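hey m, so remember when u said the tokens were messed up on ur end? i reran from scratch. heres the input so u can diff it against urs
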Amino acid sequence: MTISDALYTYGIKDKKIDKLVNKMHKHKFIRNLYVVVSPITGDGILEIYVYNQLLQPFYREVIDKVRILGIARGRQDAYELILQMVQDMYDAGDGDDIDTEFFVREA
């Protein structure tokens, strides 16, 4: 699991972000944390998961491919976070095409 250096956050106080990131590096369970990741299945631009879901045995095979791009404390906050991330992607582009590599460069 890789956590982006340019991690987007929503609904989390700045002083708690470092603690959450440290727990994620240690693969510890965290209540009420939603993560925005690059697509695990290869389709789409972004996906939302409950963080603890990624710690389950099913995801152990693909955990090395998971790139966490954003974190939020609730599902609605995760939706708001994605809106901001996509807007940033559009703002950084030329306005004609979707730059699907934007988050790879940022990570």
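this time it looks ok to me. The first strand starts at residue 2 and ends at 10. if urs says something different then somethings off w ur setup not the seq
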